[in-house]
Amino acid sequence: MVIILNxxxxxxxxxxxxxxxxxxxxxxxxxxxxxSHAEVLHPFITDILKEAQVNSNEIDAIAxxxxxxxxxxxxxxxxxxxxxxxxxxxxxxxxxxxxxxANAISIDTGFVVPMIDARRMEVYAAVFxxxxxxxxxxxxxxxxxxSFSDYLEINKVYFLGDGAAKCKDIITHKNAIFIDDxxxxxxxxxxxxxxxxxxxxxxxxxxxxxxxxxxxxxxPEKKKKPTF
Length: 228
Known about the structure:
It is a single chain. This protein starts with a strand and ends in a 30-residue tail after the last helix. Helix 1 packs across helix 2. The protein is globular. It contains five helices and ten strands. It is an alpha/beta fold.
């Protein structure tokens, strides 16, 4: 019996779940359009442990979404996961955010392109086949009318995630299908983290860092004009 705590904070959806042998037994999520992770993450963890009647010492591992995604969101999630691993003496499992998102839908044929908003017309995206096998690596890319044309010309392509919404008016190929209201969630992490646990595919807690894909760039505040 393997119990894993899954933490997803890479986007505006703050999601925490507890899974037993890959099956969800308790979950809390909040996607209110804001980054509320710092306020709700730890209360969510307390709530699901209480709901599932599981003590912290009964947890076998902590799984965290490692990115890419929001710099601040990833820092909060990874810091919390590492802190719990140190406190409970548990192993850390890291999952690619886009892999979890790709598992949010099931298709018979074609490609799945999970997208995370990276501001303006840029997204973090990867390409998966109908078996959720990654067939093109994760990239940060600027979307234009020719994006993913190699895949669109041979089969249907399903776009999902908060980065997909802004691409609807640009990627207009007949094989482009946009799936609304899908975000990275700890729900999809449950099976993935369980499979990694069985393979003993774990991280070095002390040295693990999120996968940002791009360097964080702070945007300076505009100077206010003096008033006289």
